[in-house]
Amino acid sequence: MQAIGWILLILVILVVAAVLWAVGAYNGFIKQRNLIQESWRQVDVELNRRYELIPNLVETVRAYAAHERNTLEEVTRLRNQAAALAQSAGGGSATTQRAEVESALSGAVHNLLVSVEAYPELRSNQNFLELQRELTDTEDRIAAGRRFYNANVRNYNTRVESIPSNIIANSFKFEKAAYFEVNDPAVRKAPDVNFGEISYRGEPAPINEPSRDPKPAIPASDPDALPNPQSYQQPPTAPGGYAPPQS
Description:
By secondary structure, the chain is mainly α. It has helices at residues 2-64, 69-89, 96-115, 120-123, 126-161, 165-171, 185-188.
């Protein structure tokens, strides 16, 4: 009887220890998931800051380089579309649709900054230089936020895949989070620029022109959902200091 009592006691201790470990592991996943969401929101703040800077940049360039109408309209269209998607998503998560638009916007802004090399007067304009500096600072903060976000994702994903914590992850549907990184080789390569090729002339498009290629509205995201920024890309180095660091 005494031996049975000791066995029962050991079993109770093991069960209690297992329960305590499971609770701790679950709470750890919740904490890491919240940290990932919060670190993404910090990046989202800087993306919205970029939305605010782009209209002023477009108007400044238009005053000196009206021939670049195609580029200016594309930047404006993508900016409006990205801002609308960000508002629809509430800023709490990064959808694949938004990531694609943000990537296209980064490329369009990069091409615009490259094209101004053909306009010396614009490159010496103080307002343009200030906007370029602010965009550079914003991109630096986006890159820093991306590094912090990726570090949190790495720690979280390691626990999701590791034994024995993967038991809790599988039981409670804690799925792997997506990294926020440049994964398109074409984005890493600076585009070829032909300054002899001038866009068509015409009346400038208004800054608040609605997107001509609207995307369907994004439903409110699950508060427990993880961001999915795997397609979001940073622009490559552009003349004049527009060079966000890469992690």
